[in-house]
Amino acid sequence: MKRILLVTAIALASSPVMSDELSDLKQQIEQLRQGYELRLQKLERRVEKAEAAATQAKINSTNMSKIIDRKIAQKISASPKYKSTPRTKENDFNPAISITLDGRHASFSNDAASYELPGFQLGGEAGIGDEGFSVRHTEITASANIDNNFYGQVTTAIAEHDGETEVELEEAFVQTTGLGNGVSVTAGRFFSNFGYLNEQHEHAWDFADAPLIYRGMVGKKIVDDGVRVSFVAPTDLFLEIGAEAFQGDAFPAGGEHSGVGAWTGFAHLGGDLGTDHSWQLGLSHWSADDITNRTGGGHSHGEDDSSETPTFAGDSHISAIDAVYKWAPNGNMKNQHLVLQMEYFDRNEDGTITMVGSDPLESSTYKGDQKGWYAQAVYQFMPRWRMGYRYDQLDANNSGDDMDVLEEAGLFDEHHTPKRHSAMIEWLPSEFSRVRLQYNKDESSADSDDQVFIQYTHSLGSHGAHQF
Question: Could you tell me the pTM of the whole model?
Fold first, then answer.
């Protein structure tokens, strides 16, 4: 029986019909196998391409992140106001260097040399400058992170005073970067954080000249040698508080001091309102309790028409409030924005005015009560074009036992309220260039002065972002 079954199976397998069916099955299996292998190869190639694309995207993202981090670090290192923990390795051996060119042509209807603000003792760089063409401050700035703990900046200015070209040291300071917890210490020569405009360089101003309160009360700017300690709180709203201690030998202080001759306290609070609006409010106070020799007069050159020079000795205190509001569509300031800005100063002084050079020597007790404010609006109405309007006003109510001496010192208000209207339009072909036309109706004194400025400002090299 077994032999019969085996013979039958062999016969069936060797028959032509079964042989053809097996061949067909083998071909179908081979076709399926080849199809699957082809599909697998295609899938493997797609996986390889996807992995390569992901790897390249990661590399591009890393490179872009490094570029963005480097640019942010450069801006923070050049503008240290809100810096707490910047990158520590940027510019270790390659400091950021920038040059700012600032020039103008000025035209006045009155004599610039006789400029005065009745009721205010002008000093520092409170004058309005010369007519005609002039090169203002050409600033050269170098800044870099020194190491893991310190950042440094030096700014020198090349300027012309009384027909002579001079090199001035505007700023030279170091600032801590590694203290953490929002604490920062600055030491050296720097612009005080008093008010809003004071800490800005002139080329960052929205108008070609300083507000009257800066011209009349601080000699255009408070800059001194000293130390600043500031703290930025870890809050949703921006909150900064701080204090400064200065040598106090420069206007609006004066005289030699072995310790602290002047000090400042300040606070700033700010935040956003949605995506389009932002604001900042500031309070500050400057004080000098032992001024021994502050020289200044009623005219822009620091003395009156005679050889007598008024000198103040005593105490001086200035309180200030500032407010800034900014609007820009979706927070983008590039194409369109509006900035509203104001500051108010209130100064009280108590001491003695002496007319140095008088014979016999003339002097008077002096109590100064001076106030002033300005408000301005600047609107960028289209890319590269801005226009603005500013209004200034001062008020002085000074007293003493010899009003003739105060009048000679320029501290008599002459029953006049100094005020000024300013309008400007400017073209900004790039973030590094500005050309500005400005007109002032200056009523600082009884004789109104029509002032026209054509100003250019150009920045060369790495220049950091400015404060809010």
Answer: 0.79
